Amino acid sequence: MTATPGQHMTDEISQQPAIFADLLAGREAIAEVAEMIAERRPRFALLAARGSSDHAALYAKYLIEVLLELPVGLASPSTTTLYGAQPNLTDVLLVSVSQSGGSPDLLEVTESGRKRGALTVAVTNTADSPLNSAAELSVDIRAGREQAVAATKTYSATLLALYLLVDAVRGGTGGHAEPIPELAATALDASQKVVDDAVRRYRFAERMVTTGRGFSLATASEAALKLAETSYLSARAYSGADLLHGPVAAVDEDTAVLALCSKGRGGDAMREVLDVVHERGADVCAIGSAASDVRASHRIPVPDCAEELAPVLEVLPAQQLALGLALARGSDPDNPRGLKKVTRTR
């Protein structure tokens, strides 16, 4: 029997609260990995990822820099796979993030990094993946098999797993994350009507800018990818700060702007950005716990939580919006044209 368009994505979005609860129940295993990282006292962290996992890595970059106060870089896998660079990675923490654990370039980066002295950690949804075998340590995000091509539950579970890992490295117990399953269920239920209204509002949009600051920049990047791959909408993500440095010149009354605005320093910094965008006539849709505090044409509220955990919640209505827009525009988000579930690059 042929599945209804978007059925897999719909089901997997709805599974996320239960997945978060399961991940929290198993956080002792993540804490054991964190303890080994803390014992090694890395001087620097390097993150390797592709696609949605790259946005999760961007989130981890903010977590590590803010919570652990370690310098962090995002790896360019091609420097290893295409150019053969062999930098000294002694005392470096190398975290490779891949939902499938099967991307050849990330595997090569991890293998090479381990040989060059890095403490390697794989964060995946596939416990028996080649990447897990190559890394010294591994974190299982426990999201279960994902059938839709567009990542939803694996992305959010990766965010929560990365938070629990970084929090445990600094000696935390993950206490701030305990309400996340219940808050996620509330976010999904409460936002559906306003998301449906947003779908009707933006159904015929041809281009969209997504923007956020701080931890929420990762959500802006992920939202742009979801809109592009499911709705074939021309979407571009910018940091709120970078948006004002030039790209805002291309924003006008024909531009839809999806702004991530959760309570905290990142959300506070978005107010000036959206004042400027509003003055240029753009149609702003604000998502987040601070959505009501900024100038916007449409608002999708999200329950309040610790700022560093906001991306786990605020991505949920962004996923619902991508799903709704894809269906409204006549495409099947479970099977985007030209895409496969596992992309193999080198």
TrEMBL record:
Stretches the record annotates as Disordered: 327-346
Matches recorded under Pfam families: SIS
Classification via Gene3D superfamilies: Glucose-6-phosphate isomerase like protein, domain 1
Residues of the SIS domain: 33-175, 195-336
PROSITE patterns from the UniProt entry: SIS
GO MF annotation, one: carbohydrate derivative binding
Assigned keywords, A-Z: Repeat
One Gene Ontology term from the biological process aspect of the record: carbohydrate derivative metabolic process
Entry protein name: Glutamine--fructose-6-phosphate transaminase
Organism: Saccharopolyspora spinosa
